[in-house]
Amino acid sequence: VLVLLTPLFGTVTAATVVVATFSKSVFLDVHERSALPRMFLGSSLFTVLVSIGYVAVIEKVSLLRRFRGLLGLSIVSFSALSFAFPLHPKAVALAQFVWTSGIGNLLLAQTWNMTSSLLPARQGKRLFPVLAAVSTLGAAAGGWGVSLLLRVVDAQHLMWLVVALLAVVLARIRFVVDALARLDLGDDHAAPA
Q: What is the value of pTM for the model shown?
C-alpha cells in the first residue's frame, strides 16, 4: 500500500510547494510588497469559495472522478496562466497568486480525502503518520527543487514543473485506485470510488 500511496503524496506535496513558492515570487517581482496582506486575504477567501464549490459536487460526482477533474483543472488552468503571463504580467501574477493558492490547498486536502476513502480505518491510522512524513519529504524536495531551478530559469517557468508533476499524478491515480481495490485491505475497507 505504501508503494502505491507514497509517490502520490510526495508528488502532490512537492507540486503545491513549488506552486506556492513561485506564485508568490512572481507576484513580488511585479507588485509592491505592501500588497501581500491583501493578497493573502484574497487567496484565503478564494480558497473558501473553491472549497464550498467543491463540497457542492461531492454527492453528484464520484470521488475518483472529482479528484481527476481537480487534477485536470489544475493542469489546464496552470498552463493557461503560464501562457498568459507574458501578455499582462501584473494581472496574471495577481490571478496566479489567488488561483494557485486556492487550488493548491484543495489538491492537498483532496489527496488526503481520496486516501482516507480508499483505506480501511485501521490501516489508515497506521499509514497516515508515514504518509504525513512522506508529504514532509515531498515539501522539502519541492523547496529544494525550486532553489536549484531558480538558478537557471525564471520563477514563472516553474509552473511547467508543477504541470508536469500533476500530470504524473493524473496519469497514475486510476492505477493506484485499481491496485488498492485488488488488495485485500480488510473487512472495514470502503469500496474505491
A: 0.84
